[in-house]
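Re: the 115-residue chain
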Amino acid sequence: MALWALGFVLYAGLIVAGYPIAGVAGFAVCGVAALAYVGTRDRAMFDERDGRLLGHASANTIQLLGVVSAVVFPSMVALDALGVAAWPTWLGYFGYFVAGLFAVWVAFLLVERRR
């Protein structure tokens, strides 16, 4: 979990600092390291209690991101169109990430419903 968190901090921090390629590279390195670590384990890292915990945390995350995105992104588009505020480049990258995250979430939701 720490490697994924570090990857996110590098990703977001370096994009905001103006280094999007470095942010992507930092996230990729941490993600590969996390996956490699899981692959070296002899026993399961999570049990059913962790599954419930992750399920609740995931649901809350999707809910919060959905509500915040529903307010922030349309507001920024309107403010940018009115010339009141400029659309920062890093927010565009974040918007693509959120859109992709929700696309994956919907895909998995549909898969689970079919089961």
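The mean pLDDT is 88.
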